[in-house]
Each structure stands twice: as structure tokens, then as C-alpha cells.
Specification:
The protein is an alpha+beta fold and 684 residues long. It is built from 18 helices and 27 strands.
Length: 684
């Protein structure tokens, strides 16, 4: 399980980056970079980091040939760029510096949209309006044409409008077709083109509302309405292992997929692009995704976001920014090439030293060469000691070297729950091996001491003074009221009777319990075990936490008292308040135990903590239900009704408070603007 699986904090980063200039940590940005570089930290927050790629150059023309509406391109390992010059219905070939080498396809291509070139320079072109895949040899001569598959499984009414094409080593073509929601079309070159079936079909995920709506529709209405159909992939790429990468807009966490031969997704990115345009495979088991707006994402092999940079051009045509991205490629030198169809140019980005070192470590780490990866990781951390991926990889490398103490330190910095858990398990296991005999001796010694004390107390009463002190302390009124929580937990029916009729508790004891609840909540939230912590290290908002608890108590108590009073409830405000607080007694009892356990469990044992928390919450819910019923002398049906009305009243109160707050804010802004105008006029 990857560290992101524990948090599952998925982000639509383009919307965030367009809306705000997030910069949680000030970092040096190169002066000639028109954009900032971001990453996602272990908590799922967008964080600024060092510039990862710098604009290198822009290819605006191929030799003296201008491009018109280019829609795709590819780069060969021997240093050639094949560009689909769609506006001129041709393929343009250049070297890596943009010098013209060849053109072909004129008179054959109609509306080409996708291109793929094999190692021997065989060129495949997906032509939408020609409804064909055209294949050209290394000399640019047409050698084969593949049209609509003539196979019953393809679909008798399904058109063939190819948009993108890739080819594996066996020559099998994978084709994305417009409006074909069945998936990627597989075509074998055997017998002039054999349809092999559909591949990598996107799943559908109907909402509850759609299910209900379609259930109540008539057959005629269902026939006219648009069904819940899977989305068609927007683009794809293939790596040296034959794994296929696809990007599909609107699929959220499934926007990027890595599909094996069976069409099963093997990657779960921890951040996703909402409107992806293209995908490319890097040289270090990494993958790049480009958004149509110009943002470029780089992920490692496990889908963890390394960088996001670039952005949308505002019309000034600044180098490094794009208007409408169509394709992305990576050369053997790790330079990134991005095709902008609106500007009809290719922007090139080169990695910085920071990125080169990270790529080196990334490659070594992905191959299991952890010790070798330490050297470049050390250099990366010298440049940015808060870069989560580098800390995570360093922690894993130290774990392999059995340096568990340091591995834990790096895992904490990276919020790497799996790495921390593995290192902690080893430390705990070693401690138990070293101290098991000592622990057993201490336990046996304590047992013997207790037995001896019990025997001596029985014979000579040596513990009588202690018992007398404890008895006097326990008989104090406030102590007895606080101890009543244990009785209330076990016997809620009698406990409610004691609160209502026998005055077994007081508002003072309830207030003390409320203080304990707030104290335990704050301690558990900020100082629990690493695997259970959900807040950022060093970030404290204790005042807000206490305020929210107090507001919740006031709302629940006040609204419930109001509803019960209207509905002939017998409980007084004091009784309702005390019964609510005493219903939270399991929180006071279980939270310290959960807090201690959270510091000694591994990731696989977190289940026990979660189960204890669930058990505690269920117990509290039962006590609250019983207390409302008994304090107000309701039956079960009436109690359910009162709870529903209380929740509704709380929502109304919150809404009313929000409206008042907004109105007051507007009044305050108005008064402030009037005061500013008065000061301005007096000053003049």
C-alpha cells in the first residue's frame, strides 16, 4: 500500500493553481522562468518548490516552413521530430533544432489528428475525416491503409473516426476513435487489419441521483435521455514494456491510467489534472501529463506527483507558457517538448540540476538500488530538505540498510506511513527481543509484590491508612459526581434517573468533564501517534478547536432543549446538559487508551485503533439516544422524531448565523468605506 492510500487526498490542481498563487514555502525561482513550480506534500497540500524545468527554446518554424494547426507530434530516439501539420494535411520531419528534413503525406491525408513513429521510422497517422489509419515507410511512401474494422463485435452502427494511434512491438495498433465509448480499438496488421477487440474501457460511475431518476422515468423518457456512458480517452502513450498510458478528462482520480496487457489500471496518481490533453513516458520510470491550458505534471512510477509547472499564456506569448496544448514528448536528454496548436509552435523545457539529481535518484530507487540512490538524494535534500519524495526515498534506502532510527526520521518528514510503519516494526521487534525477559521479570515481580501486600494487609492491615485516605477522597461530593460517569456508562437507564431525580451530578461536574473532553481532544489531535495524525506537523489551532467544541455543545443542548420543550419534554435545561456531557463519558475513558496505543501500532495494526474509535462512537450514540428518551420520558418513536428535529434546528441556526455574519460583514465594509471617504475628504 502506498503512502497516499492512507490519505487519499486527491486534488484538481489546475483549478487551484489558476485560482490562487499557492506558495507555502518560499523557494528560489529562476529569473528567466515565467512560472512557478509546485509539488504536493505528504498532507496533500500544494507547495512551491525549486524550479524543475526552464524554458530552453521554442521552435516556431521547421526550416522556412510554417506550421498550420498542428495536432500531434512524436520524437524518435535517433533525434528526429515528426510533426502532424494538420492544417496543411501533411507530416513534417525535422531534426532536434527545428531544421527541415522531409515532408510527406500531401494528397493522401485529409484531417490527420494523431501520429506514431516506430524505431525503424515507420509512420502511422490517424486521419479522422479519411476514416483511416495511414502507414508510411521511412521514405514517406504510403505502404498500408487500415479502415473501419469489418467485425460484428466492433458494432454495426459504430463509425471509425481515428484521433490517436500508438503501436506496440508486435505491430498491434491501439486507436482512440471519436465518439467510440467502448474503449481503445485494437487492430492487428494480420490479413490487412484484424479487429482484436476493445481495450482499456473507462468505467461508469452513476450517481445516486441518476439511478433514482432513471428508475422513475418511463421507457420513452429513458430512450430519449442520455445514458450513463463511459468517457472516451483523450490521448495515450506506450512505454518500452508495452504498458499503455491514457488520459481522460472528467475522470478525476482515474484521469491518468497505466494499463497492462489485460487492460487493468496499475497507477493511482495522488493528484489529478481535470482537463488533460496529452501524456508522455519519461526515461526514469516517470510519466508526464500536460493539460490543455499549459500545466505540465510529472509523476513517479507509483503516481506520486513530483512537479507541476507551466501555465496558460495571457496573450503576451511568453516563452514557457501555452495557449492550447495538443501533445507532449520527452527526448533522451530529459528535455520536455510541448506542442501548442494555437501558436503553432513547440516549446522545449530543459531540467535544472535539482531535477537531474532527482531523476538519477528516481531511476536508481525504482530499480531497487537503494544504497546507490542515497548519493543523489543527499544532494537533492541539500537543495530542498522539505522535498517529500526525496525524504521518502532516503527513508526507504536507510530502511534497506537496517538504519531504522534514521529511516523513521526521514519517513516522518515525508509523511511516508508505509516506510515509517516498516521501520517502527523493526525497532519494536528488536526492542522486544532485547527486553522481553526483563519485561517478564518486572511483571512477575509486580505480581509477587501485590500478592505479598495483599497477604500482609489481610494479616496486619498495612494498607488500611491508604484505603482510608482513598475512601475519604472518594466520598467527596465532586469526586462522587465525577465517578458517576462510570455508572452512567454501564447503566444509562438508572444513570438518567439519578441525574433527573436524585441529583447525582451537577453542572460543575459536567463542566469539569467538558474541560477534560476538550483537553483530551486537543492532545489526541496534535500529539497522537504518527500513523494516526491528520494535521500538519507544527500547525496548531487550539483556540478554534476549543471554540468549535463549545459551539457544538451549546447548539446541541440549546436546540434539543427548545425542541423538547415544544414537544412536552420533561427535561430541564440542567438535566439535558448534564445527560449530554455524561453521554460523552466513553470519550474520556477510551481516548487516553487510544492515544497510548496510537504510539505503538504499525500500519497493519491501525485497524485496532479505528475499531476502538468506532466502538466508542457507537457507545456514545446509544447513550445520547437513551438520555434523550429517559430525561424527557419519550418512547422510541418520539425520541427519533426529536433527534431529527434537533438536527434540523441546528442546521437552521447555523444558516441563520451565517446570514447574520454575511450581513454584518457587508455593513462593516460599508462603514469602513464611508469612514475612508470622510478621512480622504478631510485630508484634502
Amino acid at each position: 500500500m502506498k503512502r497516499k492510500a492512507a490519505k487519499k487526498k486527491l486534488l484538481g490542481l489546475t483549478a487551484i493553481l489558476l485560482a490562487i498563487g499557492v506558495a507555502a514555502i518560499p523557494m528560489e525561482t529562476y529569473a528567466d522562468s515565467p512560472y512557478r513550480t509546485y509539488t504536493v506534500d505528504g498532507y496533500g497540500y500544494v507547495t512551491e518548490t525549486q524550479t524543475a524545468y526552464l524554458p530552453y527554446m521554442t521552435i516556431t518554424k521547421i526550416g522556412e516552413e510554417a506550421l498550420v494547426g498542428p495536432t500531434d507530434f512524436t520524437i524518435t530516439k535517433d533525434g528526429y521530430i515528426y510533426i502532424l501539420d494538420s492544417g496543411n494535411a501533411r507530416v513534417v520531419v525535422s531534426d532536434m533544432e527545428g531544421e527541415l528534413v522531409d515532408t510527406f503525406g500531401e494528397g493522401t491525408l485529409v484531417t490527420p489528428r494523431g501520429i506514431y513513429v516506430t524505431a525503424d521510422h515507420t509512420c502511422y497517422v490517424a486521419d479522422r475525416d479519411a476514416r483511416s489509419i495511414f502507414v508510411f515507410d521511412a521514405e514517406g511512401k504510403l505502404i498500408q491503409t487500415y479502415g473501419r474494422p469489418d467485425h460484428p463485435l466492433y458494432g454495426s452502427t459504430q463509425d471509425f473516426l481515428p484521433l490517436k494511434v500508438i503501436v506496440n512491438e508486435a505491430g498491434t495498433m491501439y486507436v482512440i476513435c471519436e465518439s467510440n465509448t467502448n474503449g481503445i480499438v485494437q487492430i492487428s496488421p494480420v490479413e490487412g487489419g484484424t479487429f482484436l477487440g476493445y481495450f482499456g474501457t473507462n468505467a461508469t460511475d452513476p450517481s445516486l441521483w441518476n439511478i433514482i431518476w432513471r428508475a422513475i422515468q418511463t421507457d420513452a423518457q429513458r430512450a430519449k435521455s442520455q445514458g450513463n456512458i463511459p468517457a472516451t480517452p483523450d490521448n495515450m502513450a506506450i512505454d518500452e514494456k508495452g504498458l499503455i498510458y491514457t488520459v481522460t478528462r472528467g475522470e478525476e482520480e482515474d484521469t491518468l491510467k497505466r494499463l497492462n496487457i489485460a487492460g487493468i489500471n496499475m497507477i493511482e496518481p495522488d493528484a489529478y489534472e481535470e482537463i488533460p490533453a496529452a501524456v508522455a513516458v519519461g526515461n526514469h520510470d516517470n510519466v508526464f501529463v500536460a493539460s490543455s491550458q499549459g500545466f505540465i505534471y510529472e509523476y513517479n512510477n507509483e503516481g506520486e506527483l513530483l512537479f507541476v509547472f507551466g501555465g496558460s499564456d495571457d496573450g503576451q506569448q511568453r516563452i514557457g507558457l501555452s495557449t492550447k496544448v495538443e501533445a507532449i514528448q520527452v527526448d533522451t536528454e530529459d528535455r520536455i517538448y510541448v506542442l501548442d496548436s494555437d501558436n503553432a509552435w513547440i516549446q522545449i523545457y530543459e531540467p535544472t540540476e535539482f531535477t537531474d539529481l532527482l531523476h538519477q535518484a528516481l531511476y536508481l530507487y525504482s530499480k531497487g538500488r537503494y544504497t546507490e540512490s542515497k548519493e543523489p538524494l543527499t544532494e537533492v535534500l541539500k537543495m530542498n530538505n522539505l522535498f517529500d519524495y526525496a525524504n521518502m526515498a532516503m527513508g526507504r534506502a536507510l530502511l534497506q540498510e537496517e538504519n531504522y532510527e534514521e529511516a523513521i526520521a526521514y519517513s516522518k518528514l515525508a509523511k511516508d506511513y508505509d516506510g515509517y510503519s516498516d521501520a517502527f516494526w523493526e525497532i519494536r521487534n528488536n526492542w522486544l527481543k532485547r527486553n522481553m525477559v526483563t519485561v517478564l521479570i518486572v511483571v512477575v515481580a509486580l505480581w509477587l509484590i501485590m500478592k505479598c501486600l495483599g497477604y500482609l494487609d489481610k494479616k496486619k492491615g498495612i494498607l488500611k491508612p491508604v484505603r482510608d485516605v482513598l475512601s475519604r477522597f472518594g466520598n467527596l461530593k465532586l469526586v462522587k459526581q465525577l465517578r458517576y460517569m462510570f455508572f452512567f456508562m454501564r447503566h444509562p437507564l438508572d444513570g438518567c434517573y439519578g441525574i433527573k431525580r436524585q441529583n447525582q451530578v451537577s453542572v460543575g461536574s459536567a463542566n469539569i468533564m467538558l474541560v477534560l473532553i476538550m483537553l483530551f481532544y486537543v492532545i489526541n489531535k496534535y500529539f497522537c501517534g504518527f500513523l494516526l495524525k491528520t494535521v500538519r506537523e507544527g500547525y496548531y489551532d487550539i483556540i478554534s478547536d476549543i471554540g468549535m467544541i463549545l459551539i457544538a455543545v451549546v447548539l446541541v443542548t440549546g436546540c434539543n432543549y427548545l425542541i423538547c420543550t415544544i414537544n412536552d419534554g420533561e427535561g430541564k435545561l440542567k438535566h439535558i446538559y448534564c445527560s449530554f456531557i455524561y453521554s460523552l463519558a466513553p470519550y474520556i475513558v477510551f481516548t487516553p487508551i487510544i492515544f497510548v496505543i496510537s504510539h505503538v501500532v504499525t500500519f497493519n495494526e491501525v485497524f485496532f485503533v479505528e475499531f476502538a474509535q468506532l466502538f466508542m462512537l457507537v457507545w456514545i450514540a446509544i447513550l445520547v439516544f437513551i438520555s434523550i428518551r429517559e430525561i424527557n420520558n419519550y418512547n422510541i418513536k418520539e425520541t427519533v422524531k426529536i433527534i431529527g428535529l434537533t438536527v434540523f434546528t441546528i442546521l437552521i441556526a447555523v444558516l441563520l448565523a451565517f446570514i447574520i455574519y454575511m450581513l454584518w460583514t457587508q455593513v462593516f465594509d460599508f462603514i469602513q468605506s464611508i469612514a475612508g471617504e470622510v478621512v480622504y475628504r478631510l485630508g484634502n
